[in-house]
Amino acid sequence: MGVLGQLGGLIFLLTHFEVDARVDRTAGRLRGIAKSVSFHKEPRVRMNFRASGVPSWVEIQGNLPEGTPKRPYDTALNPIEPDMTGKVILFRDRNGWCPYSERVWLAMMGKGLDFSEVLVDNQGTKPSWYYRCIGSGSTPAVRWDDGKYQTESMDIAFELEKRYPSPLFPSLLPSGLSKEECGRKINDVNKLFPKNTRPSSRSAYLFKGGGIVPKAEFEATLDGIDNMLGENRQGSFFVGDKFSLVDVAWAPFLERLSVQVPLLHRDLYPRDPNRWPNLNKWYQAMETLPFYPSRVQGDTPSWTAVLAVAGYGNAGMVPSLVKSIGPSSTCASDEIWSEYASGREGVAPTPNAEAASLLCRNRDGVIRDAIVNGGVKKVETDTADKALRVITATMFASKSTEEQILDDLLKQLSEHEKEHLASFASFLSGRVCVPRDMGALPARAFRERLKLIAERAGR
Q1: Which of 49, 111, 316, 427 could serve as a FRET partner for 287 with CA atoms 20 to 30 Å apart?
Q2: Exposed, middle or buried by CB within 10 Å (0-12, 13-18, 19+), for 67?
Q3: Quick one: pLDDT at residue 79?
Q4: Which of 290-299, 301-310, 351-360 is predicted least confidently?
Q5: Distance between CA atoms of 41 and 330, rounded to whole angstroms?
Q6: What percent of the chain shows pLDDT beyond 90?
Q7: Residues 6+ apart with CB under 8 A from 44
């Protein structure tokens, strides 16, 4: 299967297939589940494995967080025009690849707005009603609550400041700067990026003509950005000590460059704290914003995978990637996740529980994808379902109990079922795409647990 196929399947099933997750909250008191499941620090799945075997979905569902999570409306799965009356709606690309969509996503999250999301397939067919609303059919776009539509990422970002001013909402205008001065600062950063590159949502600023931007040009870009950040004596962001529209404008691109540049040129790491200390501090500062690593930020495996896809950016020629290891994202901490999850209905209190919740709510779609793309035969559906229950139960376990719970679950499996489990875990790890399916923090927990499961089951 090609890389695009890997990226195109599974976790739309995790995020966007509607599966009824409403369960009797007494399910947590059923056979094998603790009589009370606490989510205050670490959610736990406590089961009498010898008595109950691999837990059922009803038992596992007792660990879901309270409430119904807010989900995007995916026009690729449901092309019917949604009811948009009186709502603020962000139309963004369904894959999470478009940096311009990410700009608006970041700005809306930074403002703390209550908004809905409609996903548009930029690589596929868009519904006709979208062209009626947005003539160009491009993303991002916003429908304001007064029914007016707007396009162009930074125009939308500045309009947010006008419609949702401080002190009722956090200001994203840098302290002491006017709108015009902020715009000039954004343009000053733009001047530092490589020139005459091919536009691309997956590989912006990486290619020109038919080849890769030379290493010296990337070094000049990183030098310039590091120097500009160093001029700010008040904090680690571009202006002052707070996240602002200047960060909104360039975070999506610097995020991708931090992963993709080292894959194109050996020993060139934008997050190198010795060579570009101010830029490294900026990356770290961004990861202190709860909404960024928890939901918006992509991760290294995903940005690596999309770089290996032929497209307009690389002129249809997939580059040879350098295999080198350098400084990478710290991907924040579980405490950052706790801040993000607090007060959000249907969001789990830890990253691993969030990943488990997605699997549990959308299990039918995950199984369907495994049959279509993972080599699972229809006659093995029951075996795949059992494997997914083991994976999900292990995902719900706390860090202090995950290994014991997994070992107890493995005792309930035959050798054939263990082999299937190891294969299924590896398959799921390769199918997740971030931030399309989940944010960087739950994705990290997801991949780590899947690796543990694959290793233990494959012994």
Answers
A1: 427
A2: exposed
A3: 95
A4: 301-310
A5: 21
A6: 74
A7: 34, 37, 38, 396, 397, 398, 401
DSSP state of 233: -
To the nearest 10 degrees (0 to 180), the angle between helices 99-111 and 153-163 is 10
* 73 phi and psi angles, rounded to 5 deg: -95, 115
- Residue 21 has phi, psi (to 5 degrees) of -105, 10
State which amino acid sits at residue 334. D
- Give me the amino acid identity at 430: G
Tokens of 297: 């930020």
What pLDDT score was predicted for residue 312?
Answer: 73
DSSP notation for 38-49: --SS-------H
Report the pLDDT averaged over residues 211-216: 95
CB atoms within 10 A of CB 232: 17
Q: Which value, in Å, is the radius of gyration of the alpha carbons in the chain?
A: 23
Q: Give this prediction's pTM.
A: 0.89
In the block, residue with structure tokens 């993709």: 260
Q: Which two tokens stand for residue 456?
A: 């233990």
Query: Tell me, what's the pLDDT at 317?
Result: 82
230-288 pLDDT, tens digit per residue, is 999 999 999 999 999 999 999 999 999 999 999 999 999 999 999 999 999 999 999 99
Count CA atoms closer than 13 A to 349's CA, side-chain side.
13
CA distance 131 to 172: 30
User: Cα–Cα distance between 406 and 53 in angstroms, integer?
Assistant: 12
276: how many CB neighbours lie within 10 A of its CB? 23
Q: CA 422, CA 333: separation in Å to the nearest integer?
A: 27
Q: What is the C-alpha separation between 233 and 239, in angstroms, rounded?
A: 9
Nearest residue to 13 via CA among 436, 430, 449? 436
Q: What is the 3-state secondary structure (H, E, C) of 164-226?
A: CCCCCCCCCCCCCCCHHHHHHHHHHHHCCCCCCCCCCCCCCCCEECCEECCHHHHHHHHHHHH
- The reported pLDDT for the residue numbered 89 is 97
Q: Distance between CA 48 and CA 430 in Å, rounded?
A: 32
